[in-house]
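User
Please review the sequence:
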Amino acid sequence: MLTVGDTAPEIRAKNQHGEDVTPAFEEPTVVYFYPKDFTGGCTIEANEFQDALPEYRDSGITVYGVSMDDTESHADFAEEHGLEFELLADPDGTVAEAFGLDTSEGYTERLTFVLVGGEVVATYDTEMADPAGHAREVLDETRALAE
């Protein structure tokens, strides 16, 4: 798994709209991996990132959610929950593997990376059972790191 100080990987994936996305990771960016659309913890986490999204944007921080679901699942998930940030579809695990995550079970663990200036500046290994509060913690700490 990538750790603090590692160079940001070069990735490309389709978002929930079917558009190709290639993040540069120069500006403050949060990439959070989650196991599966529409599951309990993943829904809580996504909704909390959405609730805090105006503050992320005001702070110049981009948020990407990534799971091994396809674009259709992401589109349905984003529509049902009003998610305005990009969900990157990673059905073959290429993005997860670029971050050094295990994809052998067909999903990834719940892990979050903060990238600034082309490198990893923080990582979070959130507890699978309780993702509540994670988006706020990441926002507060990313603001501090980006200053």
Notes: The chain has a mean pLDDT of 94.
